[in-house]
UniProtKB/TrEMBL annotation:
One of its GO terms (biological process) is lysyl-tRNA aminoacylation. GO terms for cellular component: chloroplast; cytoplasm; mitochondrion. It comes from the Eukaryota. This is Lysine--tRNA ligase. Signal peptide: none annotated. Residues 235-576 form the Aminoacyl-transfer RNA synthetases class-II family profile domain. It catalyses: tRNA(Lys) + L-lysine + ATP = L-lysyl-tRNA(Lys) + AMP + diphosphate. Keywords: Aminoacyl-tRNA synthetase, ATP-binding, Ligase, Metal-binding, Nucleotide-binding, Protein biosynthesis.
Length: 582
């Protein structure tokens, strides 16, 4: 039978064939003497693979083997269609998931068959082994795995030959039958009918090496999820986090709204935007760098509690903490201040932790993080003074602050950090540089950092008690910023002046960078090379009157990192942005 010869060739390429003598005997017609190895735990425990097969497995994913396997499987697709079978099905009616079966029939005794049970399942074949008239396969669906017990006597002759000749690890299969627990205690579907639902053309990563190439895991997440099932749990947790956030917001009376991704001016944060062009309008547009300014317009329009969960796009660096597109929730509440947002931040994070982990003390990369209230609340000035012994309130001019910072930070004159420090136009900017360099990484337990300088907080309301500061906080956990919130600025004249000052400061930094690049005759850093412009429509909306309000943005990706013990933001984004392959 041609299909049987094709199957043997595929098995040899994968390193699953038996010895040469057994293969020769099989080719003479003794087809039921096949002994096919697979990646099931049971098979691995009973027989140790020869070293030469280990070496073949290590190279099985090479381009030549991969192409050969693909060619063989394409031949199987042709033969199946020639026999009247469509290897890419429309649907399959399932009665249970694998998890439901495992839970429902766990009481069966070893060797017991539940003949009255009629079940139907579907999933991907991740392991198989054959012993003459008996074939075992492990099938995996979204909920877990279960064994398929395929006996020649329970299938038609045609189906059993098809089972041996055409099914490969990686195929998606539908199977129906009764329930059996084997003598060794393995709960199984006792198969009396099956159907190939999707024929896999490419081999899965081999069982001994798996998918360990980190870059490939991110580029081909679908393979990562097949080879490492626990990866899917991260995205299940992410879904729970987003769902719990929505439940929390709705319980406090907030409504969800949607604002534009394409904007005429990139506002709401200081970040390099992505620029695109609208052909019909013949104008450049920006992918949003924040949802803030449009959400505030909703407050002007009369909605008092609004939020948006959405993608943000910033044309900046890539690291374990940063991805050019990321997800945030921004929320705004009329007639409240930043104290209200601190309480809401605690509530959101605590509810998400309980929904996903069931506890408030969690492990993150070997450190225990306590999310139990109360969380520490301390001013930026105080934290910097604790870490350095320097009170930046004592400096009357920016140059004195810069000199003190150089001594604290140990910057070399020619370093890029020193260039950034030199570009600081106020004591507040210098204070922020020292905070980010010295203090941020030490804030391991949840900490609200309060009362930022007005120079670096153009959208925050002036502090009601301390001149030069704003009513703003940032939430840090594990040395990472999780959230940012203000008592919102509602004075349209003050807001315009701050925007204009922000543009001047940006342009000054841009000029300093340009000067350094020219003097060094190098490419330099393009951090400030983009232009910043006023959002006149937003300023106009403020002149119609926005009620007193507070607002906050929380980074959902970083929150998921915390709750899933993920070291990199790429682990919690299904398809992160990556460098081009060389």
């Amino acid at each position: 039978m041609e299909a049987l010869r094709v199957w043997r060739a595929s098995s040899n390429l994968l390193g699953f064939a038996a010895s040469r003598a057994a293969a020769a005997a099989a080719s003479a017609g003794r087809a039921h003497r096949f002994h096919i190895r697979c990646c099931s735990p049971a098979a691995a425990a009973t027989t140790k693979p020869p070293q030469d097969r280990r070496r073949r497995s290590a190279s099985s994913s090479s381009t030549s083997d991969r192409d050969s396997i693909r060619a063989i499987r394409l031949k199987k697709v042709e033969e199946l269609r020639g026999m009247g079978y469509e290897p890419y099905a429309y649907k399959w009616d399932r009665t249970h998931t694998t998890k439901e079966l495992q839970e429902r029939y766990t009481h069966l005794e070893d060797g017991e068959v539940c003949t009255e049970a009629a079940v139907s399942i579907a999933g991907r074949i991740v392991a198989r082994r054959a012993f003459g008239k008996l074939v075992f396969m492990t099938i995996r669906d979204d909920s877990g795995t279960i064994q398929l017990y395929c006996e020649k006597e329970s299938l038609t002759e045609e189906q059993f030959e098809q089972l041996k000749a055409f099914i490969d690890v990686g195929d998606i299969l539908g199977a129906s039958g009764s329930i059996k627990k084997t003598e060794k205690g393995e709960l199984s579907v006792y198969v009396n009918f099956f159907e190939i639902l999707t024929k896999s053309l490419l081999p899965l990563p081999d069982k001994y090496h798996g998918l360990t190439d980190v870059d490939k895991r991110y580029r081909q997440r679908y393979i990562d999820m097949i080879a490492n099932p626990e990866v899917a749990d991260v995205f299940r947790t992410r879904s729970k986090v987003v769902s719990e956030i929505r439940k929390t917001m709705e319980s406090f009376g907030f409504i969800e709204v949607e604002t534009p991704v394409l904007q005429g001016a990139a506002g709401g944060a200081e970040a390099r935007p992505f620029i695109t062009h609208h052909n019909s309008l013949q104008r450049d547009l920006y992918l949003r760098i924040a949802t803030e300014l449009h959400l505030k317009r909703m407050l002007v329009g009369g909605l008092e509690k609004v939020y948006e969960i959405g993608r943000i796009f910033r044309n900046e660096g890539i690291s374990t903490r940063h991805n050019p597109e990321f997800t945030t929730i921004e929320m705004y509440e009329a007639y409240s201040d930043y104290e209200s947002m601190m309480n809401l931040a605690e509530e959101i994070v605590i509810r998400c932790a309980m929904a996903t982990t069931g506890k408030l003390k969690i492990d993150y990369q070997g450190t225990e993080i306590s999310l139990e209230r109360p969380w520490r609340r301390e001013t930026m000035h105080r934290l910097v003074e604790e870490a350095t012994g320097v009170d930046f309130n004592s400096f009357g001019d920016v140059e004195s602050a810069k000199n003190a910072a150089k001594g604290l930070l140990g910057f070399k004159t020619e370093s890029s950090e020193n260039t950034s420090l030199q570009a600081c136009s106020s004591v507040g900017h210098v204070l922020n540089e020292v905070f980010e360099t010295v203090v941020e990484s030490t804030l391991v337990q949840p900490t609200f950092v309060l009362d930022y300088p007005v120079e670096i907080s153009p959208l925050a309301k002036p502090h009601r008690r301390y001149a030069g500061l704003t009513e703003r906080f940032e939430l840090f956990v594990c040395g990472r910023e999780i959230g940012n919130a203000f008592s919102e600025l509602t004075d349209p004249i003050d807001q315009r002046n701050r925007f204009e000052n922000q543009i001047k400061q940006h342009n000054a930094k841009r000029a300093a960078m340009d000067k350094k690049v020219k003097s060094d005759e190098s490419k330099g850093d393009d951090e400030y090379s983009y232009e910043v412009s006023l959002d006149e429509d937003f300023l106009t909306s403020l002149e119609y009157g926005m009620p007193p309000a507070s607002g906050m943005g929380l980074g959902i990706d970083r929150l998921v990192m915390l709750l899933t013990n993920s070291a990199s933001i790429r682990d919690v984004i299904a398809f992160p942005v990556l460098k081009l392959q060389q």
